[in-house]
Structures
1.
Amino acid sequence: MTELTAITVTVSHIVSDLIASLLAARAPVAVAERFTTRHAAEAWISLHRAELIIVGAPEDEAGDVISRFLALAPGATVLALSDDGRRARVRADGTSERLLSDVSPDQLADAVLAFLGARS
Amino acid sequence: MDGTGQTSFGSDHAARRHPRVLIVSETRLYREGLAEALARTGALDICGHSDGAKAALDALGALTPDVVLLDAAIGDGPEFAATMAKSAPQTRIVVMALAEAPSEVLSWVEAGATGYIPRNTSLAEVARMVLAIVDGAQSCAPRVTAALLQRLRELSETATNRPNEINGTQLTARELQIARFIAAGMSNKQIARELDVGVATIKSHVHNLLGKLEVQRRGQVVGRLGAQPRVDGAAWEAMLRAN
């Protein structure tokens, strides 16, 4: 399987590493860039390709944030993680969103990899 | 907020070469994810993870970890750390993903935390930092170091200047200390040597002491100290620490 490029946006370094580590243990995923603002990430996406976008967002903004990133990167899968890390939403263009509550590492990785697998 | 009261038990290595670590976080992704990622490093023995305060306190007794890696976002925060520290004083409490603001760090340390992992730490650094903390070393941002030094200075001043009441007379811890030396029959020179200060400094303290106790001669100090000077144990210990 070809290595998948991921970026993280407004997620703390340690959480970003944690998710990357959990995914990397199950599939060849590498975090290419980390962004502390959505604006910087959007600028990067307009020039580069990312298969997975992991973004930290308050729950009431998550839907809009995912839509905005998918508009910029239609081929990507977007994972939005709530501020407290308890809920996650995963969506790709043209697919139904998956909502995960009290999410475990396995559930998160399975959901993301299922979306990525469906896209490839 | 407490979790569902669950603790998962990990490996039980007979040869405890690595520190046994209990991970406590109300967020499942973090506690299980950290357990998995840190176990993979091979540097720490992850003996379990708990989802809240009650389960963590139960696990402390059952697992006797060397280290509790405590999510800074845990409900009750430092208060909970204080409870844990009282419950298992031998266990090191390391606060995980802490915002490295001096006031935050101080509140956790004063509650009983041994160390902390800053929020901006990379996952690769976590195991190394935990091992360093177990070994007695903590990396700090310069602002945090400065705040800790200032707090230490404040505590030292408080201990040195804390008034102690002797038969209705307020004495500083230093004056009380000198009064006790005088009562023990020590000369100014001997006291100066004992406290590693100049004789003139001791003379000044003695002058103030005699004035406060309203006596003319140092021999009268013994009588004014009385049989039961009203100094509690904490004040006495603080006085000793100040020296």
Note: The first strand of chain B starts at residue 7 and ends at 9.
2.
Amino acid sequence: MNTQLPAGFSDLEQFAQWVLPTSTERNRKRRTGSMDEINAFYNAMLPRMEEILAYLDQFSLQEMPQDVRRLMFLSLSLAEVTIAVELFHEPKVTGGCDPERFVVVRELNP
Amino acid sequence: MKTVMANRRWIKENPDLDTGPVPTETCTSPQLFELERERIFRKSWLNMGREDDLPEPGNYVVRDLAVANTSVLLVRGKDRKVRAFHNICVHRGNRLVDGEKGLCKGRFVCRFHSWAYDTAGQLTWVSDEANFYDIDKGALGLKPIAADLWEGFIFINLDPHPTETLAQYMAGMVQQIHGYPFDQQRLMCRYRVEERANWKVMLDAQNEVYHLPFLHITYPDFCPLNEQKFSRIQNFARFGRHTVYSVELNPDHKMTPVEEIAVNANPRGGEVHPSMIGWFDFYTVFPNFCMLFLAGTYVTYNIWPIAVDRSVWEVSLYQPATDKPSERFAQEYIRCRFRDLLQEDASNHEAIQASLNSGALTHFQLQDEEIQIRHFHKEVRRHIFGEENSASAIANNHDTVELRLK
């Protein structure tokens, strides 16, 4: 399996642990991480998002090479952690229920 | 829609909804829950998802409805018609189909004695048929449940003789939503959340925006607030048993950095379809189905009672079909934010139920922004107690209730 991100995004390789194919995994990763870890990921991704989305848009969701798909999952992890950084200022939903109780019974992937 | 932040006094147009406190007893009484089971859930049209859940002939879905003590088999026949049956073999009563969904390529076969049915519910095979006495396969077949479609949504009615057609049941709402591009939206995700709460506690908590600036860190300023920082709904309408309320998007809503990226990547996400009333429309279809239309997205809730203090919240999020990665990113952002918002609500539902179970609070106090809840509880009580008895029932007289149960 190709474990690389596309050329031009190799600096984000250090965040490879955020390349996760399902929302349940991305949400667990957010909740079990520290804010330092989450902030580091968010701060690295935020200034690159314009470039990342423009790059991804050269492909269709249905036909993505493996390395592009990895970049797609990485950006979906940003969508997941953003709320922790920008709104809750902690990994979990402040005052929320146990997120494991929101069982995903269907989802599009990616 | 022009935003009006003055006190609306919706009650003036709806004086029958009364201004008094609303009894809490239907959220805690096991006896009243039994009445709801018989008089609401066995008599009303119930949403079972969308037609797209059964795209091809032979596709089926099995839904176990604890509130009606039955399992429902939904199947699209060779003639493309969607039918509903009790998921039970007519020979000795075995559960016919296991599993949640699938494709029936030929027949549904009971594993007990191999009786078989086609996708129209006809009994097509009885093993050792000649050794039965006077059996008539044509007169048997799966036990049907009334089923019909409304704007692509599948509804069933467990009453063997429904008193209204689905079209009559939904009257008024047809004109309202007709034309919404449901066919361009596809199911992005569905959550199932089991909660220790009465189904109405869960529905009521969604059926107003008064709480938004207080409870939700995720969307404190989503809807316009007046000078005192209180919400004002911009529309409230009743369609028989059902209601809709609408709000506009707060023009001063402050976007976060990633929210701004997501909004820019999602031009269709801001589109308010002409069939919508406001920027956000919330329909409550009696008894347990809600449709939420936000610009570019719609969400449905099916809230299924299990017991008086236990329910399942099914949340389905629909967004425009896309192949474009940046749009998919934007949709994921909406999905995560919405899910987190609902998690803020879910812990609250259970806190309310636990408190109500104490019996300390006999009535809810409802303001004009919560008139939807007033309507909903009136409908619940009208169904439980009957038209003629609902006035005395609203007086919260337990003796009356017990008398009626005998």
Note: Chain A has four helices and one strand.
